[in-house]
Each structure stands twice: as C-alpha cells, then as structure tokens.
Specification:
By secondary structure, the chain is of the alpha/beta class. It has two domains: 2-251, TIM Barrel (Alpha-Beta Barrel), CATH 3.20.20; 253-394, Aminopeptidase. Helix content is 39%, strand content 22%. The chain has a seven-stranded mixed β-sheet with strand order 7-8-9-10-11-13-12. It has a six-stranded mixed β-sheet with strand order 1-2-3-4-5-6.
C-alpha cells in the first residue's frame, strides 16, 4: 500500500494466485481505492492460462473454500518439486522456501529464489528455463480449475472474470476467447507490462469484437521475482476502472422489493447523500419520519443489489397521468459504477409498465449536477418555486 501511494497509483487490485487472504483487512486500512482481485490457473492442452477475478465478495464461502483446496494442492505440488529437484542433485528444504515468502503462498518463484541463493542457478529466469518451467525436468502439474469452473466460481462470488496476459497463451486465442465467453468471460487484460503497443491494440480489437471490456496491470510480484517491473509501470487509462465497475453492475445488479430490514440502511444512505451533489429529487425538508413514510408503500420502493450489497434505491408513486419520482438515491461510494443510470432505466421501465404518459420529479436548487443528469434522460424544466425545480419527461411508447 505504501509503495502504491508513493507511486501516485489511484486504484489497486491485489491479484494473488489462488488466494484472497488479507483482502478484507486491506479494504479497512487502505488509503487508496482497492479492488478485490484474485488470479486462478487453468490448464489447457497447449498452454497454462490465467483468469483474473475482480470486484468479487471476499467473504464468499464457495470461493474461499475452493481456494483453500487449491492451496492444499499447491503445497503438495511444492513438496513433489523439491523431491524431483533432490533427485537431480539440487537439495532444497521447505523451510528455506518458506523463509522467502513475504506475502501470499509458496510457489515456484520462491523455490527459484532459494536455487539462486544456493548457487544452483544464476537467476530466477534460469531456474524456470532449466528446471521449473512447463516441460522442464522439475515441473509438476498441480490441481487447477477447468476454464468453466474458474469463470463460474468468480461469477458466483459476484466478480468479473477477465482473461489475463493473453500474450503468453499458446494455441488459437480467438477460439479460446469464444469458448470462454460462453462460460461468462467479461474482459481481456489488454494493458500489460510485457505487451507491445501493437499487441495492446490487437487485444483491444479482440475485446471489441467479442463485446468484452479491457483491463490492465503490471503483474508486479516484488523486486526479487520481477526486478524488471515496477509497480504501476503499465499505463492503464482511468476509464478502464469505470468500465469494469459498470460491467459489475450490469452482470450482477438486480432489483428487488423493499424489505423491512432494509429501511435503516436506506435511511442512512439517504442522509449521507442529501446535501451533497448527487441525483436526488426531494421537495421537502429531510426528516427521518418523511423518509420512512415513503417506505410504507413497499411496492413503490425498489432496491438495487449485488448479492447482499445495496447499491441504491428508487421511490416512485402513481399520479393521475404521471409517474412521480420521489427519490433516486445511490450509495455514496458508487461513483463511477453508473448506478444512477441503472436506477433511471428501472424507473423508465416502470413508467411503461404502468402506462404513464410522463414522469415528473422535483430537484432542489442549486443542484446543477442532478439537473444535467435528468436533462440527459430527456427531462425538461417546467417551473421553479421555493428553491425547487419541477422537471417533466414524456414517456414514449
């Protein structure tokens, strides 16, 4: 975290191999935006392929249990590698490997470090090229997910699955992407520390063809394992993060009716948003009783969720020929997720379903951002009274 902050990195995803240990604690102490991440291995016939998972729930039990089983398999693999190295005259003990771990799980890079330290090879790269890489004498297969298991596991945890560093994938990449899209793949890592500009453009074009988002990262593993890479070396445009967040809401966001146990959380969400520059439509002074009274007609309030997380809500009411929008409230940290647009689409769908000829709302002035938002959706100002602007939008069939 200190290194990321020192390098002016604004958003960081920690994508450890087969592990999400420490993510929850990181969220609580981070001084920059942190996105949940994990990297899972898939063995295809011609190549080892990695799938990244972003924005998943770190507390998801199914994902956590699956990763525990994978780590057990990784530990067994490490011991088999050491046994094979011993048969080749390279004596390394598990205790020596464990001392090289600063975070995450023990793996081949840590074994390679000990090999360098004891003089068996000159570099980590040589250790992989001569002994530890796929097809080398000390390479040991390990338990991995199938591609469909891997992608569906990330989706089950409400995450976004992305194909990692496609540069290293052998075989027919387009065929692999086509197959993985059927399983639920959502993106390609186009921006990567070892991609040339031409390769980056190629993967951007592939993503566009398959209707996938693009993501990026340095694949930084510390100065010892990746001395040629610095954290944040790879430029990743800021809109990449925004598109990732939008994809998360798009594939996982669902609306449900208001429940009694939601009311206090929604009340707190409303208090946090009122008075700040957000998309709201209120024409009376905020009070707890007023907000709670709106929730009494439960069929008029719809809550947007991803799993157990509440992202925002809308409260609407039928009028003679209109649909009146009492409130559009989104959670304070949902900036960049396009939650406002998702809520507005639901309101429009309700207007059509209820055969309303128009939608009406009131905006407190001088909330210019809210006014611009509603104007984007076709609302027009009709009148202003007592610091309140009425806006109306015709509903097209």
């Amino acid at each position: 975290m200190r290194l990321a902050k020192g390098r002016d990195i604004t958003t960081l995803a920690i994508t450890d191999h087969d592990s999400i240990d420490g993510l929850s604690e990181t969220f609580q102490t981070a001084e920059i935006e942190v996105i949940s991440g994990v990297e899972l291995g898939v063995d295809e016939k011609e190549s080892e392929i990695h799938i990244l998972g972003y924005l998943f729930d770190p507390e998801n039990k199914k994902l956590a249990d699956a990763l525990v089983n994978l780590r057990r398999g990784r530990d067994l693999r490490n011991r088999k590698i050491l046994e094979t190295l011993a048969s080749l005259g390279i004596e390394i003990h598990m205790e020596e490997v464990a001392r090289k771990i600063t975070e995450g799980n023990a793996g081949r890079p840590h074994i390679a470090m000990v090999m360098v330290e004891k003089g068996y090879v000159a570099s980590i790269q040589e250790a992989f090229e001569k002994f530890l890489g796929k097809g080398r004498p000390a390479y040991v297969e390990r338990e991995k997910f199938t591609a469909s298991d891997c992608i569906r596991l990330i989706l089950c945890a409400h995450g976004v699955p992305v194909l990692a560093h496609p540069k290293f994938i052998k075989g027919d990449l387009e065929k692999i992407i086509r197959e993985y899209v059927e399983y639920g793949l959502c993106g390609i890592e186009a921006y990567y520390s070892e991609h040339t500009e031409e390769e980056t453009r190629h993967y951007q074009n592939l993503a566009e063809r398959f209707n996938l988002i693009t993501t990026g990262g340095t694949d930084y593993h510390g100065s010892t394992v990746t001395p040629h890479i610095e954290l944040g070396d790879t430029f990743v445009p800021s809109d990449v993060v925004e598109k990732l967040k939008r994809k998360w809401v798009e594939i996982h966001g669902i609306f449900r009716d208001l429940r009694e146990e939601d009311e206090r959380e929604l009340l707190q969400m409303t208090k946090e948003q009122m008075g700040s520059i957000v998309f709201e439509a209120w024409n009376v002074e905020l009070s707890e009783s007023m907000v709670l009274s709106l929730f009494e007609e439960r069929n008029n309030t719809y809550v947007l969720c991803v799993g157990k997380e509440i992202l925002g809500y809308i409260t609407i009411e039928d009028e003679t020929d209109s649909l009146f929008i009492h409130s559009i409230i989104l959670r304070k940290d949902m900036t960049g997720f396009d939650v406002g647009d998702v809520l507005m689409k639901r309101i429009l769908a309700e207007a059509h379903e209820r055969h309303s000829s128009r939608m009406r709302l009131n905006v407190q002035t001088p909330n210019t951002r809210a006014i611009h938002f509603y104007e984007k959706w076709g609302f027009k100002k009709t009148r202003e009274l007592n610091n309140t602007i009425e806006m109306v939008c015709a509903v097209r069939n």
